[in-house]
Write a structure and sequence with these properties.
Blueprint: H1 6-18, H2 21-28, H3 32-46, E1 51-53, E2 58-60, H4 62-88, E3 94-100, H5 109-119, E4 123-128, H6 133-143, E5 148-151, E6 161-174, E7 186-188, E8 196-199, H7 205-216, E9 222-226, H8 230-238, E10 244-247, E11 256-260, E12 268-276, H9 283-306
Parallel strand pairs: 3-4, 3-5, 7-11, 8-9
Antiparallel strand pairs: 1-2, 5-12, 6-10, 6-11, 6-12
């Protein structure tokens, strides 16, 4: 890649990930014509077409697919070199792309981001969610589209990630006050065959855990409503529209029951801090990760003090 400019590779990666020149330009805070011209220059130097252009979005050519992971690695190496110089000179700068799940119990992420901004004002943090929950976050992290992620169940991409556990709790059944099981302290999954469930979409960590528990118990269930956060799940349960199984880290305003019997051993929910195994995280990413871990540690300590 001698003769290629890092900026051209940055334009290419942004276009490849956003699938759109306008969104790529907005992400990089440049005009669209600069992105288009930079990509054309890169294609001319490589003597290869990298993207198929249409009026609505772009897609990668075979050459583009080959170049993308190498371009990401090159940019990551350049960032690491800059980080090393910045650390020697006493300052950290750059960008950290963070992916998060819809709910983060016991993690005061706003406080961690505020401290990061106060201590390292030259670091830009881009925070985003993914429609497919933890599995999408894991895929994007492994592919180099994110630097750091807070996720539950990484799915197939898990072996490509470094996972630092932050929270690990059991899960309880949440029912409406008028539900036949509301007066009980515990229930088995087999007793829920006639109930309908409120749950997260496929790909969300909590959904994957509960699905595995029912399979282990040899039971099936019906899901009537899919939601993206625990507050919505409990709201539907409160109205008698179904039941749900949620991690203990969430507040449960309604009656909760301990789950016993076959499958119950599978009901442990965890939240981890994740980075890709094949890339150095960089100084800014490491610093933010340490701040997030600290908030989790303080939350665990408060919970332990509050437990009788």
């Amino acid at each position: 890649m001698i003769g290629l400019e890092l900026r051209q590779l940055e334009y290419f990666v942004a276009v490849a990930e956003e699938r759109n020149f306008t969104r790529a330009a907005a992400r990089l805070h440049v005009v669209q014509s600069a992105v288009s011209a930079g990509l054309k220059t890169l294609e001319r130097q490589l003597q290869a077409e990298l993207v198929h252009r249409t009026s609505r979005e772009v897609s990668l050519t075979e050459a583009g697919h080959v170049l993308l992971p190498r371009a990401r690695d090159t940019l990551a190496a350049a960032r690491a070199a800059i980080d090393a110089v910045d650390e020697v000179q006493g300052g950290i700068q750059g960008e950290v792309r963070v992916g998060v799940t819809s709910s983060l119990p016991d993690i005061d992420l706003p406080a961690a981001l505020a401290r990061m901004h106060a201590d390292h004002p030259r670091v830009r943090v881009r925070l985003s969610h993914r429609p497919g929950g933890s599995r999408d976050l894991a895929d994007d992290l492994a592919a180099g589209r994110l630097d750091l992620a807070l996720l539950s169940e990484p799915g197939p991409a898990g072996h490509r990630l470094r996972l630092t556990p932050l929270v690990s709790v059991g899960m309880h059944l949440v029912v409406a006050p008028a539900h036949p099981l509301a007066g009980r302290g515990a229930a088995a999954l087999a007793e829920l065959s006639d109930d309908v469930f409120i749950d997260f979409p496929i790909g969300y960590g909590s959904r994957s855990i509960v699905d595995r528990a029912f399979i282990a118990a040899g039971q099936s269930r019906r899901i009537s409503i899919e939601v993206t956060n625990a507050e919505a799940a409990t709201a539907y349960v409160r109205e008698g529209l179904g039941v749900t199984i949620l991690p203990d880290a969430y507040n449960h305003p309604g009656p909760t029951l301990r789950i016993i019997g076959p499958g119950s051993d599978n009901l442990t929910w965890s939240l981890s801090l994740a980075t890709a195994r094949n890339r150095h995280p960089g100084a800014a990413t490491d610093m933010l990760a340490a701040m997030v871990e600290e908030t989790a540690h303080r939350s665990r300590a408060r919970r332990q003090r509050a437990t009788p």
